[in-house]
């Protein structure tokens, strides 16, 4: 469990640095105009949103309230895998070493 917390925490840090770099160095709208016509951009977006859909399902399944699940999902859709990593760390810490609670969340209580 400790190793999983380390991995997801590193993912969070890497994503945060990557987002900060893109915000400082890039120009979203100018670069979007370049990338938007490219087939690999379309595939990347398809892959990203299918992943969001799957991860959102896990969040809905795990959370005790729909409101809390919706908050997490809005954050996920806004900030991407930065939030996926944060959610996984929070779920790992809350599970207190129990993998069943990590995966199943509120369904086990």
Sum up the structure in keywords.
0% strand, 109 residues
Task: Give an account of the 3D structure.
The structure is a single chain. α3 packs antiparallel against α4 and α4 (66-79) crosses α5 (81-95). The protein has one domain. It is mostly helical. It has six helices and no strands. The mean pLDDT is 93.
Q: Tell me the domain tally.
A: 1
Q: Can you count the beta strands?
A: 0
Helix content: over 70%
Mean of the pLDDT scores?
A: 93
The secondary structure category is: mainly alpha
Q: Which runs of at least 5 residues are low in confidence (pLDDT < 50)? A: none
Radius of gyration, in Å, reads 16 Å
Strand content: under 5%
Q: What is the ordering of alpha helices and beta strands?
A: HHHHHH
Largest sheet: none
Brief overview, please?
This protein is mostly helical. It is built from six helices and no strands.
Helix/strand layout:
Layout (H helix, E strand, L loop, with lengths): L1 H24 L2 H8 L3 H24 L3 H14 L1 H15 L3 H6 L5
Helix pairs in contact: 1-5, 3-4, 4-5
């Amino acid at each position: 469990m400790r190793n999983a917390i380390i991995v997801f925490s590193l993912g969070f840090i890497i994503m945060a640095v990557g987002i900060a770099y893109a915000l400082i160095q890039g120009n979203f709208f100018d670069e979007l105009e370049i990338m938007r016509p490219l087939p690999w951009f379309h595939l990347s977006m398809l892959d990203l949103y299918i992943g969001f859909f799957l991860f959102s399902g896990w969040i809905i399944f795990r959370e005790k309230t729909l409101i809390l699940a919706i908050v997490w999902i809005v954050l996920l859709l806004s900030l991407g895998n930065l939030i996926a990593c944060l959610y996984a760390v929070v779920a790992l810490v809350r599970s207190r070493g129990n993998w069943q609670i990590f995966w199943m969340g509120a369904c086990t209580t």
